[in-house]
Amino acid sequence: xxxxxxxxxxxxxxxxxxxxxxxxxxxxxxxxxxxxxxxxxxxxxxxxxxxxxxxxxxxxxxxxxxxxxxxxxxxxxxxxxx
Length: 82
Known about the structure:
Blueprint: H1 5-12, H2 18-46, H3 51-74
């Protein structure tokens, strides 16, 4: 199923905060576009025959780094022993 972000924000956020949440989402998502487009252009000109490979490797490294940074917070907490 493909759900628009506006629908998710509208369903999960109180009405008085929806404008702020949508604005924050818009700014956050476009921040990453500001990094991705110049990086793609640089990779395409620097490595014209291997830009897809280098871009994929960089994406994989970013994914692994973010996972390593947040994996502790995502783990379910273990019950404490008395």
